[in-house]
Amino acid sequence: MTRVAVVGAGYSGFNSNTPDLSWKELMYEAAVRAYEDAGVDPRKDVDAFVTCAEDFWEGFAIFDEFVPDQLGAVLKPTFTVDADFLYGIANAVMIIKSGLADIAVVEAHSKASDILTFGEVIKFAFDPIWLRPIGKAHPYYFAALEKSAYMTARGYSDDVFAKVVEKNKANGRLNSDAPYAGKVTADDVLRSEAVFYPIRKLEIAQRADGAIVFVLAREEIARELTDTPIWVSGVGWWSETSNYDTMSFTAAYARKSAEMAYKMAGITNPARQIDVAEVDDRFAFKEVQHIEALKLAKSNEIPELVEGGYFGRGGDLPVNVSGGSLSVGNLLEATGGQKALEVVLQLRGEAGRRQVDAEVGVAQAWRYIPTASGAVAVFSR
Amino acid sequence: MVFNEKIVDAGELKHIEGKIELYWIYTSGEAGDRFFKALKDEGKFLAAKCTCCGKTYFPPRIYCEYDFSETEFVEISGEGCVRAFAVATLDNNEESLKNPEIYAIIDMDGTDGCIIHLLGEMDAEDIRVGMKVKPVLKSKEEREGRITDILYFKPV
User: Fold this and answer.
1) Where are the domains of chain B?
2) Are A221 and A247 within one domain?
3) The pLDDT of residue B2
């Protein structure tokens, strides 16, 4: 069966808001750049298009019907996955491997700045009978409960999460598309307001806008199109349950989706074989959970490794070199897209001043509050 | 055009505000119906035990998500232990709540499950993981057969 490679990547953003462009124009910008990067004409060369979106983030129903034009996909096979960009990558890999398409496009975007009632939209994802009617607080409280359960289960102190924020905000300072990068110390984090104790203000990724488009192709075509194909060597996705009483609160969804992706990629020792990782850090504790779930380190060693800079830009296994969502912002369903983009840029050697030495990278995204679902993709040079 | 003729005058930017007004009825199903009737009429708590593996679910449901087999209802005390808690200071619009709310994951006695609900009659500083709590219900006349018939949980 053919291998599948990323042959083009384009993006628009990332910004705290984008008042001059509609969400469709954001997509168009990202698409034009991706096709330029890949050297393809979407009207002639692309066989299938996959978009990733959730109607409630968009503010209208049947999102897939709003797509084809801005991607060059009119009168072509398109569908929408109501999930993160990495699920779109998994679908594109399947479409190409099955022989249905030689070249497929994946898109995800966030126009979070258009959402006036972000908290209310998330509350719509809460069980309407058992959970949604309880209390008046912003749904961020659900993440705070998960952090509380996770910290207790692992015996972690808050220092490790504060250090993650310090690292990611610092990494973001070398990323010109990271609007929330900054000079923040772990002490600043610990002193920031405990808006959802035990989560403090600086541990929460703020919302951002942007769009990401990838062009994927089967091996023979990929080699014709580019000298630097980045192989999608593994994909995985997993859901725990929609019921809070049977959720692990230790990111089992990420562990299982990573195992699926690693198996496909032939990775048996991720801590040694993965050179760079971009994981979901939309709350600081999520990065720690995901490092553990992706088996990038043993859970009891993580606090020491974080403290010692092991996951820093100059460390043995850089995590969120892009600055992560804590610097780039919460891109909703495009979160995994930004993470995959960073891995691709790193593997191509196109990451500029934040370039690290990497042959194999992993990108991971979670489906956000209140889910226990997510996806993983492994990329290699 | 979007690449070389950007709108730079913020005063020219246009947008339209919109809203979606949505209404549903959410059916609570067989398990929910039994639970909320018992809560409303008798102030009792029901869980659901898998007839195959014996795992006891709270909130109750009619099937076991591991065995995909049926469950039977069992009465429980409604008391439990705090596994995790959070103190929320902001509302849905990220504006300050008049009074911070304390949420908790409470492992329910006699079950393998838990409830997420509010804690009351205690200060945030006094909450400990593992502390025993019991539910405080609305008076029988005020109960509607909803999860909010439980006002909060308080220390035993």
Assistant:
1) 29-155
2) no
3) 61
* Interface contact B123, partner A, CB < 8 A: no
For residues A200 and A337, state if they share a domain. yes
Q: Do the Cβ atoms of A136 and B92 come within 8 Å?
A: yes
Q: Is B106 on the interface with A (CB under 8 A)?
A: no
Check pLDDT > 60 for residue B1: no
Expressed as residue numbers, the domain containing A107 is: 4-116+208-230
Chain B residues close to A29, C-beta within 8 Å? 2-3
Top residue of B22, B36, B82, B85 to mutate, by most chain A CBs within 10 Å, is B85
Share of chain A above pLDDT 70, in %: 100
Residue type, B78: G
Closest residue on chain A to B15 (Cα): A19
A9/A217 Cα distance (integer angstroms): 12
Cβ distance B32 to A129 less than 8 Å, yes or no, reads yes
A223 & A271 share domain: no
Is the pLDDT confidence value at A154 over 80?
yes
Does residue A111 share a domain with residue A122?
no
Record the tokens describing residue A243, joined without a space.
């019921």
Q: Which residue of A has its CA nearest to B149?
A: A134
Chain A residues in contact with B65 by the CB 8 A cut-off are 241, 243, 246
The total of structural domains in chain A comes to 2
**pLDDT tens string B22-48:** 899 999 999 999 999 999 999 999 999
Average pLDDT over residues A107-120: 96
- A261 and A175 both lie in a single domain: yes
pLDDT(A335) > 90: yes
- Using the beta-carbon criterion (under 8 Å), do B13 and A128 form an inter-chain contact? no
- For the segment A229-251, what is each residue's pLDDT rounded down to a tens digit? 999 999 999 999 999 999 999 99
Residues comprising chain A, all counted: 381
- Of all residues in chain B, the one with the smallest CA distance to A144 is B86
Of the candidates A174, A213, A205, the one whose C-alpha atom is nearest the C-alpha of residue A322 is A174
- Tell me chain B's radius of gyration from C-alpha atoms: 22
Shared domain for A95 and A194, answered yes or no, is no
Q: Quick one: pLDDT at residue B4?
A: 73
* pLDDT score for A260: 98
Same domain, A100 and A243: no
**Residue range B136-153, pLDDT digits in tens:** 999 999 999 999 999 999
Predicted local distance difference test score (pLDDT) of residue B11 = 81
Looking at residue A258, which CATH number applies to its domain?
3.40.47.10
Alpha helices in A139-193 (DSSP H): 140-154, 159-171, 186-191
Structure tokens at A70: 């801005």
The verdict on A199 and A103 lying in the same domain is no
Q: Render A80-120 in DSSP notation, one character per residue.
A: EESS-HHHHHHHHHHHHHTTS-SEEEEEEEEEGGG-S-HHH
